[in-house]
Automatic annotation (TrEMBL):
Main location: other
GO molecular function, one term: carbohydrate binding
Limits of the Periplasmic binding protein domain: 58-315
Cell compartments where the protein resides: Cell envelope
Bias kind Basic and acidic residues: ranges: 32-44
Chain residue ranges for the region called Disordered: 32-54
Organism for this UniProt entry: Streptomyces clavuligerus
Any one GO CC term of the record: cell envelope
Family: Belongs to the bacterial solute-binding protein 2 family.
Record keywords, A-Z: Signal
Name under which the protein is recorded: Putative ABC transporter substrate-binding protein
Amino acid sequence: MPEPTVPSRRGILFGTAAVSAGALLTACTSNDPKEAKDAADDRAAPVADDTPGRPVTIGFAGPQADHGWLNAINDNARSRAKKYSDVTLEITEGSNDTAAQIGQVQTLINKKVDVLVVLPADGKALTQVGLQAMRAGIPVVNLDRIFASPQAYRCWIGGDNYGMGLNAGRYIGERLKDTPDAKVVELAGVDSLELTRQRTQGFDDALKNYPNITKVARQAADFTVESGQAKTAQLLQAESDFHALWNHDDDQGVGALRAIAQAGRKDFLMVGGAGARSAMDAIKADDSVLKATVLYPPTMAASAIDIARALAQDKGIGGLSEQEIPASITLYSAVVTKDNVDRYLPTGFR
């Protein structure tokens, strides 16, 4: 999963793009369902209009697609580029080896692409090549995992890991607010990643508003089905009585649900993270403990293509008074439940 350090949650919030990956939400920061729906219904124009402009070559470099979310990132970038007759997409073979990815970005720079979209395997390690591109006059759209210097990119767009945890905690808190001595457990991601710490911090901060709820256990998994199953089995053995489980990632959630089914447990609710299609299908069926998932939408890659095209063609963003594209765009972590899952199903990744 991605590892950004979000520049600011006070920046512009991009919606989850349930209808169009490039649609800008008008300050959709409310947790009130009606307000959120009204904001979604008032979507402004796409990031860049569809009227053909001058031909643009966009270089796209991302990490190896060894995870459902990362594969969806590549799919979103490709499909969005195909919508524009004036865009040529130069996409590299993804790599988790930072030296290899640096070489791939340098190759795109040498090809003199008009703009770069880079989701770095390691933001800090790829900062220098981002700076190299910017110095060469090639604007860089930094996708999700952020470079160490704002000088290495023209625009950053990514998800809100803290917001994921915060909204998961709020959802669980509201479900359990009338339950005396409620207990929750957490199935985290990889503890060495900053994103995991941000998700945990957001969750813990949300629970502070519910004094009747205590987090009694936490296990860190590895964003894989196998680790999700093994770590959940350990949680279930260690904790015989709890009311909710917050799982950071829907891929490892597949394994978590297997362990829960094998244990025959149905006495708690589960909230996932990221927005996999399998999770949304389970939420819609309403036949398991999984009742919600908090989005970390891979549609950000489609929006990054929109932004890259707009930068190359010297266009702005529809719906904003400013002529220039913002320096940073933070997506909103919507909570998908049985009540709204149909709206988000088109964005669910496999």
